[in-house]
Amino acid sequence: MKRKFLFLGCLVLLIVLLIYGIGRRYWQIAPVERQSYGLHTRLGMKVWGVDQQVLSQAFDLIAKYEGILDPETGELGRVNVGAYDHGVVVSDTLWELLQRSVEASVKTSFAFNPALGPVIRLWDINGSHPHVPSMEQIDRARKLSQLDDCLFNHQVHAVRFQKKGMGLYLGAVAKGFVADRVKEFLINNGAYAGILDFGGNILTFGNKPDGQSWTVGLRAPFKSVADLAAVVTLPNGGSVVTSGPYEQYFEQDGKRYHHIFDPQSGCPSDQPLEAVTVIAEKSEIADLLSTALFVLGPDKGKTIVETFEGVTAVFYHDHHLQVVGPLANQIQPRNGWTK
Amino acid sequence: MKQISLVLLLLLLGWGATLLVGHQNGRYAIVEIDGKIVDRVDLTSLQRQMTKVYGADANENVVQFTQHSAAVMKSNCRDQICVRAGVLKRKGDAAVCLPHQFVLRIEGDADYDGMAQ
User: What is the pLDDT of residues A54-101, one digit of tens each?
Assistant: First the structure.
């Protein structure tokens, strides 16, 4: 009799363990993961609640947005080629993003400028032979990069350039915008938690299945990959985006020229900052603000951050992190960094 | 007969338990040169084995990574201590090549979910 109970007990335990073990593997207790390339960077996703097929649809979606936002080969490229003196009607997606970009540009005193195409093209930081342009060239590109000279027809959703050679460029917002759309798509398809890594832009959503808060490491500027300046805990999820001059640059005559341009000078921003991280619910905001705040610097930047609700900014300088915003207490410095 | 079924049951139980507690955490191989981390390989997600060469000319270390391990296969250093460290499997295992200021070590899961950069 005793033995029978033991036997039964063991059997029940075994079944429970089996279900748990198999469930971990085949039901959505384990996340699905996928890495790929797109938006000119490496893209990674780890998502709970969906299958691989949904992830591949998410990558198709990214390709679709790339076809809109690429300043050369996308719909935006067609605008850049055809909008001088001619209204070009754009898709709803592009129109809405452009409108939000213009709004954000005004809010950041034009430190984020979606019309910076001529300056970016002139410097061609990622080209095969980047070099410092002449002062005349810089001046001309700067004058062609005035957002005021880009006219928006709100009735028909058309864009028109008043000067020849103008160009819209959404590189400072595209990855964030697409990440937000992908998150939306995944949630609509059953995802209940996930983390997206779009070339170092992180977006987390949902409650992490292990019951802990999401944590994101903040890379120490100019250091090798796994060196952290801090770790931030995100009790409500959200996006973490860093802009720093160490990502893309070239050197000429011993000086470094990086890819974050100050629209006022038409040159790489000369801030002594090493990087800026922005934490926001929306990746689009985190993305564009990290660029804008890097250009503005900590003093002007802080007053701008305060006009965005729920946004936290981290300014990196000389092993010190200056933090503004509601998540200030969730940031733990590491490796000799202070706060 | 009863004994056999009991043994069988215990075996199955053991297997179930390994499913439960033996859930593999992520494992990384870290490569450091001159005290700086130059590479971080996610071993768990490695599809097939991979060989990489670190350093150049007089300071070469050849490392082979598999899903479960990392090892210095070849080095042109004078003492060959790093090669003799053998196959590194467990968290904390390390192969150090002093002449080249080269370290290969195994780390467990990062204590954060993503890295913003």
Answer: 999 999 999 999 999 999 899 999 999 998 988 999 999 999 999 999
Rounded Cα–Cα distance for residues A292 and A113 (Å): 8
The residues facing A312 across adjacent strands are: A279
Q: Rg of chain A's alpha carbons, rounded to an integer?
A: 23
* Token pair belonging to A74: 């996308």
* Chain A residue with minimum CA distance to B107: A226
Interval B21-52: pLDDT, tens = 544 456 888 898 887 778 888 887 788 889 99
Q: In what order do the strands lie in the sheet with A331-333?
A: A331-333, A228-234, A214-219, B114-116
The answer to whether the CB of A71 falls within 8 A of the CB of A168 is yes
Chain B contact residues (CB < 8 Å to A): 2, 6, 9-10, 12-13, 16-17, 19-20, 23, 30, 36-40, 45, 110-117
- Do B66 and B73 touch, CB atoms closer than 8 A? no
Residue of B nearest to A219 (CA): B117
| Distant-in-sequence, close-in-space partners of B41: CB < 8 Å, separation ≥ 6 | B28, B29, B31, B50, B52, B65, B70
Q: Which residues pair with residue A38 across a beta bridge?
A: A41
**pLDDT tens string A238-258:** 999 999 888 788 888 888 888
Please spell the DSSP secondary structure of A105-149, one letter per residue.
Answer: HHHTTTSS-TT-HHHHHHH-TTSSS--PPPHHHHHHHHHTT-GGG
In which residue are the tokens 């893309």 written? A248
Closest-CA residue of B relative to A210 is B113
Q: Yes or no: say if A149 and A10 are a contact pair by the CB < 8 Å rule.
A: no
Q: Can you tell me the ipTM of this complex?
A: 0.79
Phi (first) and psi of residue A137, to 5 degrees:
-60, -45
In contact, A278 and A295? CB cutoff 8 Å: no
Burial level of A13, CB count in 10 A (0-12/13-18/19+)?
A: middle
pTM above threshold 0.80: no
Q: How far is residue A338's CA from residue A319's CA, in Å, rounded to a whole number?
A: 6
- CA-CA distance, A169 to A242, in Å (whole number)? 19
Secondary element (H or E) of residue A222: none
Asked whether the beta carbons of A320 and A278 are under 8 A apart, the reply is no
Residues recorded for chain A: 339
Please report residues of A whose CB lies closer than 8 A to that of B36.
223-224, 227
